[in-house]
Amino acid sequence: MHKITLHSKTVLVTGAAGFIGSNLVLELIKTESPINIIGIDNMNEYYDVSIKEWRLSEIDSCLAEHKNSTWTFIKGSIADKALIDEIFATHKPAIVVNLAAQAGVRYSITNPDVYIESNIIGFYNILEACRHSYDNGETGVEHLVYASSSSVYGSNKKVPYSTDDKVDNPVSLYAATKKSNELLAHSYSKLYNIPSTGLRFFTVYGPAGRPDMAYFGFTNKLLAGDTIQIFNYGNCKRDFTYVDDIVEGVKRVMQGAPEKITGEDGLPLPPYAVYNIGNSNPENLLDFVDVLQQELIRAGVLPENYDFESHKKLVPMQPGDVPVTYADTSALEKDYGFKPNTSLREGLRRFAEWYKEFYHI
What we know:
About 40% of the residues lie in helices and about 15% in strands. It is α/β, with parallel strands linked by helices and about 350 residues long. The strands form six sheets. It has a seven-stranded parallel beta sheet, sandwiched between helices. Strands 1-12 form a two-stranded antiparallel ribbon.
């Protein structure tokens, strides 16, 4: 593994107003100053833009305390090739973290176009820009880190999911686009010697997360007095991973790029790797809802006497969903000495407290 220092480096973070992206930017400013961060995000309206704006305001507040770092935010899409090329030409990022993507399994069934645009065309633009960063003898990009997803495992029966498993049977377009990212990255790593690492994230949650995720949607519905639907009659298990653990994992991976090695044929072996980042502790959905409701009461989001039973409905599985996600994170532990460890209760407690404050409850 090739060690990379982040100090004084220029880092491009795509999806910088997103849940993981904004938290990564905050962490880098707090712990790796001086650092120069370029953020790009199209600020689309897939979910409440005010949450994205709040995340960006947190970055601005953090910068006030870390004045030796720089932060440049660009509103735009990674699917805009000319814009991406211009960013690379102007800023010459040493490390690229591609987190921009159209997220969500169910939304990919009703709105497939945006997945192709962002997750395929957008990622291709990033790869091309990385490739050309080496033109004319330039040092170029030292490491491309990009978001993949646990959804690439489809309905694999073998658990926990290992990066050694075959993942050729995606059950949603979203999953297929993420698998495509891994394939594209591999070919570019092989052809152009671009060190790249894909990270398969497992159900990321926490404060200021995505409102389309179950814990956030459940909270909104319970507060409005609506009924929450628990899929597969509650027989779903998810490997919930707290956002700070994800960010710590990403930061560590950024600093260790796959080694550039020449093969026996004299050609470069692709400097390419893929890791799972998950909690390795799948939680039953009904237990998860139970902890969530306790923490919402504790934070004062819901009243002590809230009647949860009358607001729960067990329903069948949704198309594109899988019954269980479970990460084998042994490779990440071995190579980077890191394993996520935030408990579900602690993570949901922080979410409930943020929710109360953000919505002025």
